[in-house]
Amino acid sequence: DSGVTQTPKHLITATGQRVTLRCSPRSGDLSVYWYQQSLDQGLQFLIQYYNGEERAKGNILERFSAQQFPDLHSELNLSSLELGDSALYFCASGLAGGNNEQFFGPGTRLTVL
Amino acid sequence: TQLLEQSPQFLSIQEGENLTVYCNSSSVFSSLQWYRQEPGEGPVLLVTVVTGGEVKKLKRLTFQFGDARKDSSLHITAAQPGDTGLYLCAASYSGAGSYQLTFGKGTKLSVIP
Questions:
Q1: Interchain CB contact of A33 with B (< 8 Å)
Q2: CB-based contact A99 B50, cutoff 8 Å
Q3: Which of B99, B103, B105, B108 to mutate to test the interface with A (most CBs of A within 10 A)?
Q4: For chain A, where are the alpha helices, taking DSSP H only?
């Protein structure tokens, strides 16, 4: 158990809809990272927050957004969903310093029908 | 954009055999992590290597960081069915976005009893 929690575990929705994925980091970690994993693309970095502020952006679509709240939990919002957004979405947390070790949650499997 | 190449992509071996998987980049890493991921679960951090030439051991797993810090290898001795999984390397690079992790596409290992 990494100490990172994610909800929900599974999410099935239709094209055009909007969903919110939630992540709680390990105790003491200030940084939260979001990743998307699909079969053909592997693990792709989406976005990083540090202590409530956006720190780095990766391959995140404009239809996706995220935020980190004062209690350090984070939410990833996905809107105008398309079939191609079906994937595993992982949250990771870390100290964002030193050796940049990141600890991953169990993921949310999103299926868009 | 830095790319991490992992090889082989797939590996199927008998229990008791030894194996090595590789991770290579054209750019120098500031640090590199190895993760293991099981189907439908989040990646689990195995080790972090930082110093060129560094060797770390974790039971039957030996991790090596290349002298030039552009490559790494993972060697498993006497593989067991419990070693089955997707092995991912992930690198941090110096400069902008240095707290992002770039992941390789992984080596999918199957150990047959």
A1: yes
A2: yes
A3: B99
A4: none
Q: What is the pLDDT of residues A2-59, one digit of tens each?
A: 899 999 999 999 999 999 999 999 999 999 999 999 987 789 999 999 999 999 898 8
Residue with tokens 């080596």: B107
Closest-CA residue to A99 (of B74, B44, B94, B72): B94
Q: Are B99 and A31 in contact (CB under 8 A)?
A: yes
Say yes or no for a CB contact (<8 Å) between B43 and A90: yes
Place of tokens 């999103």: A110
Q: Is the pLDDT of residue B67 over 70?
A: yes
A5-19 pLDDT tens trace: 999 999 999 999 999
- Give the residue on A whose Cα is nearest the Cα of B9: A42
Q: Could you tell me the pLDDT band of residue B95, with boundaries at 50, 70 and 90?
A: low
Query: Which three-class secondary structure string do you get for B9-74?
Result: CEEEEECCCCEEEEEEECCCCCEEEEEEECCCCCCEEEEEECCCCCEEEECCEEEEECCCCCEEEE
* Averaged pLDDT for residues B94-107: 79
What's chain B's Rg over C-alpha atoms? Answer: 14
Query: Which chain A residue has the Cα nearest residue B3?
Result: A44
Query: Which of B40, B43, B48 is nearest residue A104 as measured by Cβ atoms?
Result: B43
CB A90 within 8 A of CB B42: yes
For residue B98, name the pLDDT band (cuts at 50, 70, 90): low
User: Residues of B with CB below 8 A from A10's CB?
Assistant: none
